[in-house]
Write a structure and sequence with these properties.
The protein is α/β, with parallel strands linked by helices. The chain is built from 18 helices and 14 strands.
Length: 469
């Protein structure tokens, strides 16, 4: 395997002149068909070190559609070192032929061991590592995702002298290794922006551990619900971007990042005249895998009869572990799907902040969608529009007749029944109540507020009362 890599090219992205910013993508994905982007960078010095210490075997960890597992397998094959992959999920052992990532790893000579999700959560413990050594003998250990000091060293070589004029450096974030390397080799005046593929703030700790500068920021609004979660909007964007820019993106990392960057450009986030460099981290082999997995959906419903992503909390029954806001979170596992629907109903009916929704008509799905968002059920600002779109696309309102016992037409409330108000600077609940001829208490009840705290941009659902003159 040749590690004398020349600098990757920066490809301009065509943008309308009205945005007055320049956007380029560093095509790290072209380094190698499989060992591309940050995987090449992270493995480079780890493989050199393994050879230096006379290791004959490299062992690492990953999930069913892990770009890291595929890259390690192919790199080991080309570099002449045996590879072992510890794969999360015993249930995958008899499904290898259905999984393109695992098929590639096997065909590249990687030995696969499938670990239960319970054992996998302890993969970094000394006891677990010693068990692996007893089974496989001496090996060089590369952590899940590949992030360690040698990986950071490799990622510090992504930027070069031609990149010093850029104002912003953007990259997707998984374990925090790539962005840490970029931060370390960036110029003091440059701002490094990371776009996490997972929900939650835990990635910050990893970055702080490895980064030597503070000129970075995480943009956590474009994870599309969590790791490997996608929707039609994201897929449409990826397809359109490939069509218009001739640059392929993957749905787990680069697709979400580019969606976020384009959205920020449209919103004026970047000052006029800014030069933006986006790091394409590769991972394109994951496209086939994510699509064959059912677009990252269905595991909780298929294996646990959990149709609403209900987490364990005080649950004492069977459980299943799944990546969500954080890796390997605990979710309830039901013997029958009906109990999932029961618990979701209890979730809504037993919480005070949703009480105002039950004043709405049962078939008024549009107001229910907006009311759920206002009560804090979802953080996505587009949640009501997305939910309404799905209901109308598949005519789900037709199922209301089975519950309500009548043939119904989609219910439309009068325009002045409920309205949305987006909080602006200077707004208080009192001033808003006067504007809409309501009481503060009515607004609080309708939106599930426990106090008078509101924030700029927050959407409030209001029911104006006509003023008497």
């Amino acid at each position: 395997m040749n590690f004398s890599l020349e600098n990757s090219d920066n490809q301009r992205v065509a943008l309308p002149s009205k945005y007055n910013v320049e956007l380029f993508i560093k095509r790290e994905d072209k380094i190698h068909p499989i060992i591309s982007g940050n995987k090449y960078r992270k493995l480079k010095y780890n493989l050199i070190e393994a050879k230096k210490q006379n290791f004959k075997t490299l062992l690492t960890f990953g999930g069913a559609f892990s770009n890291h597992i595929a890259a390690v397998a192919v790199a080991g094959n080309q570099y002449g070192i045996k590879t072992i992959g510890i794969i999360r999920g015993e249930e995958l052992a008899d499904k290898v032929n259905e999984n393109p990532t695992l098929q590639l790893a096997l065909s590249s000579g990687m030995q696969l061991k499938f670990a239960s999700r319970k054992d996998y959560r302890n993969k970094e413990s000394e006891q677990f590592i010693e068990r692996l050594k007893a089974e496989f003998g001496k090996f060089y250990l590369v952590p899940e995702g590949g992030t360690n000091d040698f990986a950071i060293k490799g990622c510090e070589e992504i930027l070069n002298n031609n990149d010093k004029d850029f104002d912003y450096i953007c990259c997707p974030v998984g374990t925090g290794g790539t962005i840490s390397g970029l931060i370390n080799c960036s110029q003091p005046r440059q701002q490094v922006l990371g776009f996490p593929a997972l929900k939650g703030d835990f990635i910050k700790d990893n970055i702080i551990k490895f980064a030597t500068k503070t000129n970075w920021k995480l943009i956590a609004d474009y994870h599309f619900g969590g790791y490997a979660k996608i929707n039609l909007e994201l897929i449409s964007f990826i397809n359109e971007f490939k069509e218009t820019q001739n640059i392929p993106l993957d749905p787990i990392y680069t697709g979400k990042m580019m969606y976020g960057i384009m959205d920020l450009i449209k919103k004026g986030f970047f000052p006029k005249g800014s030069k933006i460099l986006v790091i394409h981290t590769g991972g394109l082999q994951g496209i086939e895998g994510i699509l064959e997995s059912g677009s990252g959906k269905g595991r909780l419903s298929k294996e646990a009869n959990n149709h609403f992503g209900i987490k364990c909390h005080e649950w004492t029954g069977a459980r299943i572990y799944h990546d969500d806001d954080a890796l390997q979170e605990c979710f309830r596992k039901y013997v029958d799907a009906k109990y999932s629907f029961r618990d979701h109903s209890l979730f809504l009916t037993e919480r005070r902040r949703y009480s105002a929704l039950f004043d709405l008509r049962k078939d008024d799905y549009k107001r229910w969608a907006k009311g759920l968002k206002a009560a804090g059920y979802a953080t996505d600002r587009k949640y009501p529009d997305k939910l309404i779109s799905l209901i109308e696309r598949y005519k789900l309102y037709e199922y209301d007749k089975e519950v309500l016992g009548a043939s119904i037409t989609p219910y439309e409330k009068p325009e002045d029944a409920l309205v949305s108000h987006f909080v602006i600077k200077g707004d208080t609940l009192y001033s808003i109540s006067k504007k809409y001829n309501m009481t503060v208490e009515e607004i609080q009840k309708l939106n599930g507020l426990t106090d008078t705290t509101i924030s700029i941009g927050q959407e409030l659902i209001l029911k104006p009362t006509p003023k008497e003159y």
